[in-house]
Design a protein that fits this description.
The structure is a homodimer. By secondary structure, the first copy, chain A, is an alpha/beta fold. Chain A folds into 3 domains: about 45 residues, Orthogonal Bundle (434 Repressor (Amino-terminal Domain)), CATH 1.10.260; about 130 residues, Rossmann fold; about 140 residues, Rossmann fold (3-Layer(aba) Sandwich), CATH 3.40.50. The first copy, chain A, has 14 helices and 12 strands. In chain A, strand 1, helix 5 and strand 2 form a beta-alpha-beta unit. In chain A, helix 5 packs across helix 13 and helix 8 crosses helix 9. Chain A is elongated, with a radius of gyration of 26 Å. At the A-B interface, helix 4, helix 5, strand 2, helix 6 and helix 7 of A face helix 4, helix 5, strand 2, helix 6 and helix 7 of B. Chain A binds a DNA duplex (16 and 16 nucleotides) through helix 2 and helix 4.
DNA sequence: CTGAAAGCGCTAACAT
DNA sequence: ATGTTAGCGCTTTCAG
């Protein structure tokens, strides 16, 4: 069965301590015995037991990641990039997708604590007050936390600068001559997309058409974009552009408009958010705002490792940081920039 | 700092053995002490250390999952469903996305073995012969493996019946009157999509147009569908339908045809494969073949747990199973079924 | 019903 | 340079 360090020691005719030494490569070992032991390791196909090791070292080299839903491409990319970023530092990720179930959320949290993760990354979750309690546990076990949720100010936080991103998106539309810009967003308040829109209008000394700001309860997805746009169209409220909460909402909006005989971007310009894979494949190719996911992931990994390596004292002293990342406007077809280049 | 069982024992005025008993709920403990201990646990916010526990129990309640790429929605869904399926059985998943790097592949394998996963699920990976070696390790550590790759017959395997799925897809096109059906697939041989196509033609006593079978080296994605279709169109090889390796390839093909002034499905019918989220949102909505991912995940979890619970003997005796799942043709707009209902 | 003690596989002093 | 030993936090006999 599974070989242990003891078997390797026997096979090599040394004590387990010496085997441990070559395994960890720290203490010096005579070259000849080193080789002898290495041979035994190879012959037995020995792989050290990380769990046993972490009991002593008091570190599992594991980072927990809790995301709201993987069907949202953003979180998949984030996981991928985080995995890439932590790998060279010797950490593995364990992933929990809550699918927006509060129970799952707490269950993962518990599971991660039981597994003694060295650090925890949490996306936008834990809204309910009961969760505060769960999060206290993290403190009790002094597990470093970094969030990817701008709303949660209790921890270090990395997040795209959505105010800037949204502002740029809307500025772009305004520059293209649009004044009646519909905003399709979720019901969470305050919403940075909305703030960005208002900011852009302010910067241009323009008045926001409040009737075109639509906040929708429930899931923010294709269906929502589709339905909301249909409603908007039914209200006979004239608008020449749509700024959607995310790309998938934008797809829904475009679909709805096509069904009503409106053309994008000729009749209505559309800007999305996130730059999912499909954005460049969709027809019309979607103008959107891209998050620097790779940068976020790397900085996060960097910071996380720094915190992990601090002692209790330092952690207390270190101030909670909110690091925000520049968003990038990606101009494609759906905003009609090309055909409007000659001015409004 | 982190409370241990010892602290709980002290706080409750009992021995650690008794605390362990209430933790595991197996042995019987006097109700009064049970309560006393439970109170101590709650007060200290104690969470048992799973790693310590697994050392003794010789089980980590962890399943490793290795997938080729998460940017392919199929694998995301599979992860989600597997997580759901294993959760009630008390297992957590740890995920490795190799992004088609053989190094990563081996690294994950090693990492999972070191973490002493109770079972391993592997997608279509490990094609290179060097990997055989890595897989031997699994045997050495007698870690149960179930694959999601029909090519790998050395292990238990769960997989969609792609021959049936592809056959149905092409049968559908043939029924709609198509004879010149282009197939866009990868270069892996034997390819079930191709087999399915041939099978469908055979069943209808028709001749396959070999020139329309395109096997492409490299990644199978939107770009591939787009480029291949352009080439096909350039060759002036008449075809009235395309069966694409997967939905994203189909999107690329449709895009290419639209650019050449061809309409889908009026001029060319298209059938995809996988039924990704976007398939129903795309315009035209994609006719495609859906995998019963949830069923696959559940059966897999079931089987995995059965194997884990076997002893060495039983495992040897148990024959390797290949369980295949019925695929489902989802008819939407891109095949033109609706407008061709009245016959060819 | 509960406690004492052995030990899971490993690392880290402390000896030699 | 290497071996001996004491744990890490927990479960599980074996006594009592």
């Amino acid at each position: 069965m599974k070989p242990t360090i003891k078997q390797v020691a026997e096979a090599a005719g040394v004590s387990i301590a010496t085997v441990s030494r070559v395994l960890n490569g720290k203490d010096r070992v005579k070259e000849s015995t080193r080789i002898k032991i290495q041979e035994a390791i190879d012959r037995l196909n020995y792989q050290p037991d990380l769990n046993a090791r972490s009991m002593i070292k008091k570190e599992t080299k594991t980072i927990g990641l809790i995301v709201p839903e993987l069907m949202n491409e953003y979180w998949v990319q984030m996981f991928d990039e985080l995995q890439d970023a932590f790998w060279p530092k010797g950490y593995s990720l364990i992933l929990g997708s809550t699918n927006r179930s509060a129970d799952r959320e707490r269950a993962f949290l518990k599971s991660f604590i039981e597994r003694r993760v060295d650090g925890l990354i949490i996306g936008p979750c834990f809204d309910t007050p009961e969760d505060e309690e769960a999060l206290e546990l993290l403190d009790r076990y002094s597990i470093p936390v970094v969030t990817l949720d701008p709303k949660n100010r209790a921890y270090d936080c990395m997040v795209g600068d959505h105010l800037q991103g949204a502002t740029e998106a809307v500025q772009h539309l305004i520059r293209l001559g649009h004044r009646d810009i519909a905003l399709l967003c979720g019901s969470s308040m305050p919403d940075t997309r909305e703030l960005g829109l208002r900011n852009a209008f302010l910067l241009n000394h323009l008045q926001v058409n409040e009737d075109l700001i639509v906040r929708v309860e429930g899931p923010v997805n294709f269906q929502m974009g589709y339905q909301t746009t249909k409603t908007l169209l039914g209200r006979k409220m004239p608008f020449t552009a749509i700024f959607a909460y995310n790309d998938v909402v934008a797809f829904g909006a475009i679909r709805a408009m096509e069904e009503e005989g409106l053309r994008v971007p000729e009749d209505v310009a559309v800007v999305g958010y996130d730059d999912v894979q499909m954005a460049s494949m969709f027809r019309p190719a979607l103008t959107t705002v891209r998050q620097p996911i790779r940068n976020i992931a790397r900085s996060l990994a960097q910071l996380m490792v720094e915190i992990i390596e601090m002692d209790e004292e330092e952690r207390k002293r270190a101030p909670k940081k909110v690091i925000s990342f520049q968003m990038e406007l990606v101009i494609r077809e759906s905003c009609g920039a090309r055909m409007r280049q000659h001015g409004e």
